[in-house]
Amino acid sequence: MSGKVVLYYFNGRGKMESIRWLLTVAEVEFDEVFLTTRDQYLKLLSDGALMFQQVPMVEIDGMKLIQTKAILNYIAEKYNLHGKDIKDRVMINMYSEGLMDLMEMIMMLPFTPDVKPKLENIQTKAKERYLPVFEKVLTGPIYLVGGKLSCADVQLLECTLMLEEKFPGILAGFPNVKSFQGRMTQIPAIGRFLQPGSKRKPQPDDHYVKPVMEVFNITLPLP
Ligand SMILES: N[C@@H](CCC(=O)N[C@@H](CS)C(=O)NCC(=O)O)C(=O)O
């Protein structure tokens, strides 16, 4: 590998958090450059580092990668977390996409003026649309696809932890998902990531939202 992996994003979860999780499980060390000013962002733009003028951006293997899913797929492929064949991979991608849809709804909450109806919608969708899928798949198997740890497992763990932060007890009706969560947290790298002082980011607050608004020159409410 040429050089250390460097993540360019805010000092908060957002779209980068799943990348942090996956690198952690792959046991890849990374540094982080936190965007705090618009000038930093403009400099990245003028350097041509952000193809679509967006972050996350990840420097890895001499490349500057953008687009969250492309970055996740690269890491998953490189570290053998993307199944054994194309049939495994398409299942992994289907689970991942569903989980990303759900996590993105939670991710947008700090930028949402009227949170209550959104929260209710997320809870209903989590209980009625998403969690039942994983509860069923995990009747028996230890991992979601092909008896082998994949990026979809990592995202399911991340998502269930996010859900429990918002809706404590939400997994009560999903015992297989709850056991899965317990098993995943036994993985040493994950155990370390869950400890205070790791590179895992806390739930978003003003310290995260303010720089985002400043860097992108935006005012609430978002469209
Ligand atoms: N499809 C892109 C979307 C990235 C994205 O929306 N990034 C936001 C920050 S989380 C951004 O850079 N927004 C500025 C803009 O779109 O102008 C991805 O998944 O990486």
UniProtKB/TrEMBL annotation:
Keyword set, alphabetical order: Transferase
Name the UniProt record assigns to this protein: Glutathione S-transferase
Ranges for domain GST N-terminal: 3-83
Family under the similarity heading: Belongs to the GST superfamily. Alpha family.
Entry-linked InterPro entries: Glutathione-S-Trfase_C-like, Glutathione-S-Trfase_C_sf, Glutathione_S-Trfase, Glutathione_S-Trfase_N, GST_alpha, GST_C, GST_superfamily, Thioredoxin-like_sf
Known EC number: 2.5.1.18
Domain of life per record: Eukaryota
GO molecular function: glutathione transferase activity
Top EC class for this record: transferase
Transferase among keywords: yes
Domain GST C-terminal: 85-205
GO biological-process terms attached to the record: glutathione metabolic process
Reactions that this protein is recorded to catalyse: RX + glutathione = an S-substituted glutathione + a halide anion + H(+)
